[in-house]
Amino acid sequence: MPLARLIPCLDVAHGRVVKGVSFVGLRDVGDPVELAKYYSDGGADELIFLDIAATPEQGATMTSVVARVADVLEIPFTVGGGVRSVDDASRIIEAGADRVSINSAALRDPALITAIAHRYGSQAVVVAIDAGEGVVHTHGGRVATTTSTVPWAVEAAERGAGEIMLTSIRCDGQRQGYDLVLTAAVRSAVSVPVIASGGAGCAAHVAEALRVADAALVASIVHENPAGLPGLRREIEALGIHLRPWRAEQ
Amino acid sequence: MSEVVVVDYGAGNTRSVRAALGHVGRSSVVSSDPATIEEADFVVLPGVGSARSAMEHLNRTGAAQALRARFAGGGATLGICLGLQIATETTDEDNGVLGLGLIPGYAHRINGGRVPRLGWAVVEPWGEAYYFAHSYAVESVDVVATADGIIAAVQRGSFLGVQFHPEKSGDAGLTFLEQCLSPV
Asked: Do residue B168 and residue A76 have CB atoms under 8 angstroms apart?
């Protein structure tokens, strides 16, 4: 099995990184390209960009961000938010992203998962699920649907999703740890890898998540202190999790 | 130093490969022109998309024959991921597809573990971690490196194929590309 992955997630709106990145060492903390490169140099295994203000008119802005990121980044990255069609996915992937993440668009039109997987392979399709109270939510977690979480994860994988990114609405932003029970339930129901998301407050939380998931998404824990990423990796490894061998540049 | 030719088979993302080549100081062109491919000092056969559409594109453009000809003539070629899988004789993907036949062997769906196989793994005997993202893997007598029991690299004559993505494998990947390119 591949090594556990630590994946910083950057929220992007109108081509700028938003939400909680505070760091004096960067020239421009709002520049997704500069921050991506910084996290890559700090030992991120992969990155995720979520376009949180995605509208059809914003598509071109995100595509140009993706292209600029692809030109400087030598680790894989996923782009989500605003992917509603195969054409949207093509635009993002052909600009240089490795994978696209789809959320409510996949719920509305599950055939979209298969269509993107058919064109680019399952490894290029992440289905993101915002889960709470046993059901899938949309609109950034604000609207509950009647779709049950675990069966939806199973269906998404059967339709061609190459990975499930599971966010617990209850845990997200609380910094009290990931929802390990839900993550384990989803992971045992599917045969594709699972990214745990929501709730990291310290290295121990991430290490716990990586015992039940293939990867862990981190946001505020790294955005509050981007320079602390190598240290976070070391702490997670000290807790017995095998991340990829990586050395900070001298 | 001559330009590296990145083979276009109509499936998108050659940008990352070209960016990585740029980081190790090599300019590149994307082409499916048979003469360009056959005569290049170094060719990269990248890995995105499906085996069937890749082979159809290579056959239709004549790039498949050019790749065989340059292989026969000793021209250096690096296959990445799908570019390794389609260099074998056959792949099980898309209900079976004939490959380029540069190397003996075949590609089959991975059984065991999570599929797709996503993430970093240490490649032995090289001792470095590289990034993998694949649902099919090759079997070949020409194996030169493995990771978690899966073939990570195959070499025959002037063809080197890797299952991982050097262009997505950080500094280790760039060092690998630099070494591949150093003779040309």
From this structure: yes
Find the residue in A nearest to B132 (Cα): A2
The answer to whether the CB of B20 falls within 8 A of the CB of B166 is yes
Spell out the per-residue pLDDT of chain A, length 250, in tens.
899 999 999 999 888 888 655 555 555 668 999 999 999 999 999 999 999 887 766 777 889 999 999 999 999 999 999 899 999 999 999 999 999 999 999 999 999 999 999 999 999 999 999 999 999 999 888 899 999 999 999 999 999 999 999 999 999 989 999 999 999 999 999 999 999 999 999 999 999 999 999 999 999 999 888 999 999 999 999 999 999 998 776 4
Is A11 labeled as catalytic in the residue annotation? yes
Model confidence pTM above 0.80? yes
Contact B114 A76 (CB under 8 A): no
Helix residue ranges per DSSP H, A123-250: 149-158, 180-189, 203-212, 220-223, 229-238
Q: What is the mean pLDDT of residues B71-81?
A: 97
* Side-chain-facing half-sphere of B66: CA atoms under 13 Å: 25
DSSP notation for B54-75: HHHHHHHHTHHHHHHHHHHTT-
Cβ contact (<8 Å) for B50 and A2?
no
Contact yes or no for A212/A180 (Cβ under 8 A): yes
Sequence ranges of the domains in chain A? 5-238
- Picking from A6, A192, A23, A226, the residue whose alpha carbon sits closest to that of residue A113 is A192
Contact B173 A45 (CB under 8 A): no
Active-site residue B23, yes or no? Answer: no
Candidates A112, A51, A60; CA nearest to A81 is A51
A118 contacts on B by Cβ (under 8 Å): 50
Active site residue B167: yes
Question: For B4-181, which CATH class?
Answer: alpha beta
Mutation choice for A interface testing from B6, B9, B118 by most A CBs within 10 A: B118
Half-sphere exposure at residue B9, Cβ-oriented, CA atoms within 13 angstroms: 28
Per-residue model confidence as pLDDT tens digits over A29-53: 689 999 999 999 999 999 999 998 8
Summarize pLDDT for A69-92 with one digit per residue, the tens. Answer: 999 999 999 999 989 999 999 999
Is B16 in contact with A70 (Cβ distance < 8 A)? yes
Cα Dmax for chain B: 43
Active-site entry in B38, B93, B167, B180: B167
CATH number of A5-238: 3.20.20.70
